[in-house]
Amino acid sequence: MRPLVVVANRLPVRRGKDGGWERSPGGLVSALAPCIEARQGRWIGWSGGAGVDAPPERQDGIEVQSIALSRNEIQEYYEGCSNRSIWPLYHNAIRPSQYRRGWWNRYRDVNERFAEAAAEATPDDGIVWVQDYQLQMVPAMIRRRRPGLRIGFFLHIPFPPPDLFGQLPYRKDLLEGLLGADVLGFQTDRAATNFHRTVRALMSGVEARGEDLIHEGRRIRVRVHPISIDARRYQSKAAEPEVLARSRAVRRHVGEPRDVLIGVDRLDYTKGIDLRLAAFQRMLRRHPERVESTKLIQVAVPSREGVADYAHQRARVERLVAEINGEFGAIDRTPVYYVHRSLELDELVALYCAADVMLVTPLCDGMNLVAKEFAVTNGRDGVLVLSEFAGAAAELGEHSVLVNPWDPESLTAGLVAALELPAEARRERMEAMRATILRQDVHRWAKDFLAELDGAWGPGRLSPARRAEGEPAFQPSPRAVVGS
Fold it and tell me: What is the pLDDT of residues 303-324, one digit of tens each?
């Protein structure tokens, strides 16, 4: 196996409660850490703090390399360009993007530093896998330094249609950056198709052959690889006696209602938490018989609190929680239980196990792994209410209650439909979702993408077998065809 260098905005480690370093709990780390260990590679990223705050070079069996960011770089590269320019635009401009030349300059500079580190760290027979929207310039920057390397890029968030992407002042720079990769991975067919259409609309000299693109004599594979979770790890956690006991305690704490609805989201305006709360409020007004028997637990994990749009969203969410509890609550009754903090894995899985209905209703989402976590941990034959604009809908939509979160009536009706779904239908749906996720877990995702990347040939090269047969160099089709 070829040595693997992963390049991501964040390192796979974090500061623990004791101040020391520990492995981060996320699914991406669970998937890629074993790959790095097996391939004798390393992970390049930022520690999350300002200045030199680097973990040891080897942490929990993973070789890590920290890219230090100054406070100014965090503000301009991360909070500015990444999360106030690119993030809202890629999520269908749910909030207006802000563009500042200084932010863009810092984004480009930081991407150069990541690319330089990757180019120096990767052996000649190695491969580089770059992750997500913060580092879209990195593939081409590595390519300029090391033209023979195999380079992959995976976008974890949506990719917008051409008309939206075209608003970016540095649109061609970002496309050039991405086209430096040999394999480009997207979560959904929609995102991959949007990328194809955007490249054809904005870039001259790029042609399409089926799903692939031809740029500067190289074939770039554009592929759909929906990410998943470490399903068996979550299942194992859900079976632990301590977690099951905590799950029962959750239901007791909220008064042993007939139905417990749960939402678990980062406090991000793309997640639609405010619209979900408003739908719950409408449902209680229209169905007063459910006031006593239905409770909602909403976890809103703090996120990017230095960005004004996030602060405004928090204020709106907390105002709605207060309104609902004021309208329908009593001394011995609280309709909405609101939690504004991060949860440990035991707490999170206990909530999933306690739920009768899981609400995953983002306005736009690359995938949304909460939906998959719920499906493999919930043992109550719960119901998933899922936004049609979540990437997870492509895999789980057939077995969930699918809603349009932009439509208040659709969202409210979806809550009622989930609560009224017959027990047999609930069981069949959960079993089908669980089977899908166990079959396509995060380890399969990483394995499939790396197999694609291992098989990608570098600039102007054919496979050894085809070279031996004397096959001529690849010639792009004269007619561009967009693959769907």
Answer: 888 788 899 999 999 999 999 9
What do you get for the CA distance between the two ends of the chain, in Å?
A: 31
380 neighbors 353 (Cβ within 8 angstroms) = yes
Question: Is residue 183 helix, strand or coil?
Answer: strand
Answer yes or no: is 265 within a domain: yes
Reduced to 3 states, what is the DSSP secondary structure of residue 386?
strand
Q: Identify whether residues 195 and 279 lie together within a single domain.
A: no
The residue written with tokens 């990328």 in the block is 195
CATH number of the domain that residue 362 is part of: 3.40.50.2000
Q: Residue type for 220, please?
A: I
User: Nearest to residue 185, comparing CAs of 9, 30, 366?
Assistant: 366
Residue 236 CA: distances (Å) to CA of 174, 232, 240, 251, 371: 41, 6, 7, 21, 17
Residues 211, 274 within the same domain:
no
Query: Are residues 24 and 115 located together in one domain of the fold?
Result: yes
452 Cβ partners below 8 Å, 6+ apart? 152, 183, 185, 221, 223, 225
| Residue 14 confidence class, pLDDT cut points 50, 70, 90 | confident
H-helix or E-strand containing 447?
helix 442-454
Active site residues: 156, 365
> Are 216 and 313 in the same domain?
no
Domain that holds residue 185: 4-228+446-459
Structural domain count of the chain: 2
- In 137-293, which residue ranges form alpha helices assigned H by DSSP? 138-145, 162-165, 171-178, 189-202, 231-238, 241-253, 273-286
Tokens linked to 343: 């949860």
- Whether residue 137 is predicted with pLDDT greater than 50 in this model: the reply is yes
What would the mean pLDDT of 202-223 be, rounded to a whole number? 93
SS3 call for 383? strand
Beta strands in 240-396 (DSSP E): 259-266, 294-301, 336-339, 357-360, 383-387
Distance (Å) of CA 459 to CA 121, 143, 256 = 20, 10, 62
Give residue 51's pLDDT band: very low, low, confident or very high (50, 70, 90): confident
Q: What's the mean pLDDT in 450-458?
A: 76
pLDDT at 280 over 90: yes
Helix/strand/coil percent split, the chain, to 5: 45, 20, 35
Name the pLDDT band for 6 (thresholds 50, 70, 90). Answer: very high
Tell me the whole-structure pTM to 2 decimals: 0.91
Handedness of CA 350, 353, 359, 364 (dihedral sign): positive
